[in-house]
Specification:
The protein is built from four helices and 15 strands. With 228 residues, the protein is mainly beta. Strand 12 and strand 13 form a beta hairpin.
Length: 228
């Protein structure tokens, strides 16, 4: 057998093993409306020509990002290692304060509605005329012990980065998790824009959630979860 045929066979075998060890679970919009909701209601609507889940904030207003805010935790989904893919669109809501950023993202390995790992976006920062603010476009944190401001103070620049996106437009997020490492890929880029080593909650398992800031108009679609 020629070398090229041996290599091809090996690649196909590896792909076959991979497909057996990891399967993508597509989560429908109707399933998402049945999620456990915190500080929000959820409805299926049309946004930029696509059906999507909209989280609508309710309750006391938070200023900017806080451990509170709208959160939809999927029922009967357990996640440890694998990948989470979702399209999100976030923008400051009408009447939001000037420092609103359109916070939107994904919580994973959720232990409760107040304890989880999270990677989220600040869409308005992406094209800001200020390099330091641009560098704060993506963010990792772990609630409640490791909020963004603690991480920024103790490890400047380590848990946030820049990524190219448009405020209020659909942005694809892919979060890959393995052990205590995670990586964020934006808009199907080949390389991650944010790499996290040493996830603060450790090598745990938990639920998956969709999150946004209280001052955000936010939408989600095409959620799929691949477990390994």
């Amino acid at each position: 057998m020629k070398l090229i045929e041996v290599v091809a066979a090996a690649v196909l075998a590896a792909a076959s093993v991979s497909s057996l060890s990891a399967s993508a679970q597509q989560v429908s919009l109707s399933e998402l409306t049945k999620s456990k909701l915190r500080s929000s209601t959820a409805k299926v609507t049309t946004y930029r020509g696509s059906q999507a889940l909209q989280l609508v904030p309710k309750g006391q207003k938070d200023v900017g990002y806080a451990p509170g805010g709208p959160l939809a935790i999927l029922n009967d989904v357990r996640f440890k290692d694998g990948a989470i893919d979702v399209d999100v669109a976030g923008a400051p809501a009408k009447g939001a304060p000037e420092d609103a950023r359109g916070f939107i993202g994904v919580a994973f390995r959720v232990q409760s509605d107040s304890r989880f790992e999270i990677i989220y976006l600040r869409p308005t920062n992406s094209h800001a005329d200020d390099q330091l603010r641009r560098n704060h476009t993506t963010q990792y944190s772990a609630e409640p012990e490791w909020p963004w401001d603690r991480l920024r103070k103790e490890s400047p620049g380590v848990y946030e980065s820049w990524a190219d996106m448009e405020t209020g437009r659909w942005t694809h997020m892919r979060i890959e998790v393995h052990g205590t490492d995670a990586a964020l890929y934006v808009n199907r880029a080949l390389n991650p824009c944010l790499i996290v080593h040493g996830l603060k909650l450790g090598d745990t398992e938990g639920a998956v959630g969709l999150w946004m800031g209280q001052d955000t108009e936010g939408y989600f679609k095409n959620l799929s979860i691949t477990k390994k």
